[in-house]
User: Which sequence fits this backbone?
């Protein structure tokens, strides 16, 4: 059991390095239903990939975990190269890979769960919530130099979660219907008891106080049992962004990771005030429902999330934060990404044109 509040977990000599975790679904190439074949994949992994491809709750899923990189593009490249290697392993068995945050028409009966003591305990406690937990996400870890920087980064992220969610939104369909949302995965995740938008903390010891209470009461047994949209990872000394939907677009992945790196670099130096919990919830809902077209409430000002994202990039470019984390000259690429059609809207357009959920899934296959 992990307890305590050890400041030595942080990285004063190597801050702002990052790692990416991407959950990927295995798909039967003929039926486009989930393929419960991850044991087949794991049996055939080359040794160099074994530390970086992990099992997940479902046998129709694997998780790619990158090494630590100092550059977002390198991390994104590692993810994509690993995806293509996994695709090659599964190809002869008709196993395809898709970074689907929600599958358009699967149901819980299509999936098999790994027998594992941790997962068994979750199943017993969470019941139908876990049985319907058929989602995939993207997590971005950024190393923090100090505990003060970690708290500043964590607090700043809470008010900006909608920007990163809107940029990654990729879950408009669920159980054979259009949800009307851009990120239905987010609403499924919020059913868990320790998920969603967390509370603010003034200091790292205060953060540790809550975590230690959760340990002492037997509520959690690992830092991994806290699933907030952002958390300080007490094993890695990182701030971990967890709000994003899974997707496989290399450029989008590299740019969102770069944006988060630069965001944390900037706001650890220039901390910002807190927002009311209801404002944070409303802004997140606006991203869930409308994506980049949703409204962002900032004080008495209301602007589109897309405009707020452009303003953020301008700040990070002007203050040198992008340059500081290896993003020199990348501001224009970030502005282009923000202006692009979101993945969720692209998938909805495909379905409206074809009326075929299989066509939607084929769009998201790793080829």
Assistant:
């Amino acid at each position: 059991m992990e307890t305590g509040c050890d400041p030595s977990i942080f990285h004063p000599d190597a801050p702002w390095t990052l790692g990416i975790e991407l959950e990927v679904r295995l798909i039967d190439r003929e039926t486009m239903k989930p393929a419960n074949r991850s044991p087949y994949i794991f049996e055939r992994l080359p040794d160099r990939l074994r530390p970086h491809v992990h099992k997940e709750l479902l046998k129709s899923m694997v998780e790619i975990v990158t090494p630590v990189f100092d550059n977002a593009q390198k991390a994104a490249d590692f993810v994509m190269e690993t995806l293509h290697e996994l695709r090659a392993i599964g190809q002869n068995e008709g196993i395809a890979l898709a970074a689907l945050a929600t599958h358009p028409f699967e149901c819980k009966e299509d999936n098999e769960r790994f027998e594992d003591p941790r997962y068994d305990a979750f199943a017993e406690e969470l019941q139908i919530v876990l049985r319907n937990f058929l989602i995939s996400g993207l997590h971005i870890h950024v190393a923090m130099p100090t505990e003060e920087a970690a708290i500043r980064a964590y607090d700043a992220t809470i008010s900006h979660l909608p920007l990163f969610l809107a940029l990654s939104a990729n879950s408009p369909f669920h159980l054979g219907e259009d949800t009307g949302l851009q990120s239905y995965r987010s609403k499924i995740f919020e059913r868990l008891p320790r998920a969603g938008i967390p509370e603010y903390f003034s200091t790292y010891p205060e953060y540790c106080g809550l975590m230690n209470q959760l340990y002492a009461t037997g509520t959690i047994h690992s830092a991994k049992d806290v699933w907030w949209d952002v958390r300080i990872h007490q094993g890695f000394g990182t701030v971990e962004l967890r709000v994003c939907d899974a997707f496989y677009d290399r450029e989008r992945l590299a740019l969102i990771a770069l944006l988060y790196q630069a965001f944390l670099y900037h706001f650890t130096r220039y901390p910002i005030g807190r927002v009311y919990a209801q404002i944070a919830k409303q802004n997140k809902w606006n991203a869930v429902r409308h994506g980049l077209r949703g409204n962002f409430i900032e004080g008495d000002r209301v602007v589109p999330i897309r405009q707020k994202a452009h303003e953020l990039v301008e700040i990070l470019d002007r203050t040198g934060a992008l340059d500081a984390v290896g993003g020199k000259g990348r501001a224009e690429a970030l502005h282009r990404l923000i202006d692009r059609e979101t993945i969720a809207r692209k998938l909805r357009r495909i379905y409206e044109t074809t009326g075929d959920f299989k066509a939607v899934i084929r769009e998201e296959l790793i080829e």
